[in-house]
Amino acid sequence: MELFLQFISNTGFFLAEYRNFVMIGIGSLFVYLAIAKEYEPLLLLPIGFGVLIGNIPFFKGFGLGIYEQNSVLHYLYFGVTTGVYPSIVFLGLGAMTDFSSLLARPKLMLLGAAAQTGIWATLLSAMALGFTSKEAASIAIIGGADGPTSIFLTAKLAPHLIGPIAIAAYSYMALIPIIQPPIMRLLTSREERLIRMPEPRPVSKKEVMIFPVVGLFLCCFLAPASIPLLGPFFFGNIMKESGVVDRLANTARTAVIDTATIFLGLTVGASTQGDVFLNAKSVGIFLLGAVAFSIATASGVIFAKIMNLFMKEKINPLLGAAGVSAVPGSAREVHLVGLKEDPTNFLLMHAMACNSSGVIGSAVCAGILWSFMM
Amino acid sequence: MYGLEAISANNGWAMAITGPLIVMSGLTILALIISQLHKIVAIFDKKPDSATQSAVEDKISVPKILPDNILETADIYQALIDKLEQPFELKALYRIAEQNDFPHPILTVGRFRVAGILVPEGEGLFVWKR
User: Fold this and answer.
1) Is the peptide bond before A343 cis (omega within 30 degrees of 0)?
2) Chain A residues with beta carbon closer than 8 angstroms to that of B28
3) Do strands B88-89 and B118-122 pair parallel, antiparallel, or not at all (unpaired)?
4) If you measure CA to CA, which chain B residue comes closest to A349?
5) Is the predicted pLDDT of residue B93 greater than 70, yes or no?
6) Of A21, A170, A179, B81, which is the most exposed, with the fewest CB atoms less than 10 Å away?
7) What pLDDT score was predicted for residue B41?
């Protein structure tokens, strides 16, 4: 009987507390949204299931939890805390990205820079709310709308916040269809949304091959702290564009990035143990994340409108919203909002140019923030 | 510490001004470089060889502005379609249209699809029904 009672006292049913159930509810919601609504399933399913795994109560000291030394989850989490997974994700991302639309219309790169304003505005807000400068920088990068970049910078500056920041970043990326369109409509007139973008010029093979080299040198000389992200990113891209290592490029954009995404999502989800995750700081991070993402979207659109004041050939200001680096979600949303106004106005290709510029912009911002904190 | 005092103590104002300036100037320089990249590449490119030369000579002449009537536009495109084997992929049509400097091929092909002149045959292949 004593053995039975001892066993019972070690079960999850006995050890559970309300915070575990709250988190299990959140994890279940993520899994539901991924499967039933197909909201960013590649992100929400691993994270949601990770939240479920991480919030099963267990007997401390058995080496089971993600924060316990020598546990399997702890070893898998190593890739997050050291920034290994984000770098691998960037390698695959580079091997997927086609820069030709950006090369055909380089002005759109400025929208990728402008949309990073959300990061800097949130940095100030987080500091004002009492977060330390390192915590504020980690929270601010959510405004870049780039999950791997957020995780990478947080792992370097405020590792204790990886869980809430990663969850906030990925949640807002999944909520792009809900967050971005109202901001886009609010800041643009119908006439502006109807602006047609001229067809881009054809881009030569040599240009797309030279770009990763030029981009690497310029961005990484400017912000060397962005090397762990932009180095693999441009390497992946040159593998794709050179065409001489198709096998490697193909592996990078399929098996490699998929493996990293699985373990990144699962372990980030599992790191949200109720007792660690549910506190006032996490609530603050979620609120600031929403502010960061909204300011980023708005600043991209407003900057596009400002550019139109000086340019003969107007650009559709909706494209500014794709300056955040949520690839390809925000580009797709810009395209859909444009299509609602005019079903023959195809903005996707142009929005992808802003989106890929946003990826570079947010990684450079991460590098700058990191170097500011050194 | 909270509010403006916390921002000042953490050097936040300087970061929030310097950071975006660095990002904007970095990406502006990158944009400037890539806007000139095609000119630099053209300088280093060799002169067109005889095969390229003959391809240029084989170009189909096309008006700068295509007619509003989709059937008249289809007549102009017929010369391109004759060069393709049916059924064909849309990217092949785009490529050949771009090589011959046809204006706005993506929009035009979209109009052909709406007008039922380009009909999908499945598996990404299309046939020209004119």
Assistant:
1) no
2) 109-110, 113
3) unpaired
4) B106
5) yes
6) A21
7) 85
Residue B119: strand pairing partners: B127
- In a domain, residue A120? The reply is yes
Under DSSP, the state recorded for B60 is P
CB contact under 8 A, A119 and B19: yes
ipTM, two decimals: 0.88
Highest-pLDDT range among A181-185, B34-38, B107-111: A181-185
Hey, of A127, A132, A348, which one would you mutate to test binding to chain B, going by the most B CBs within 10 A of its CB? A127
Nearest CB among B4, B32, B37 relative to A128 is that of B4
**Can you tell me the mean pLDDT for A104-113?**
92
Q: What is the 3-state secondary structure (H, E, C) of B118-130?
A: EEEEECCEEEECC
B28 close to A113: Cβ distance less than 8 angstroms = yes
| A267 inside domain | yes
Domain count, chain A: 1
Calculate helix-pair angle for A257-270, A162-174, nearest 10 degrees.
120
Q: Do B12 and A344 touch (CB under 8 A)?
A: no
Other beta carbons less than 10 A from residue A264's beta carbon: 29
Q: Span B39-67, mean pLDDT? A: 68
Query: Does residue B61 sit in helix, strand or coil?
Result: coil
Interface contact flag, A218 B103, Cβ < 8 Å: no
- Coil, strand or helix at B121: strand
Side chain identity at A156, as an amino acid letter? K
pTM of the model: 0.80
Domain ranges, ordered by start, for chain B: 4-44, 51-128
Instruction: Tell me chain B's radius of gyration from C-alpha atoms.
Output: 25
Angle in degrees, CA B98, A246, B122, rounded to 5: 55
B48 and chain A in contact, CB less than 8 A: no
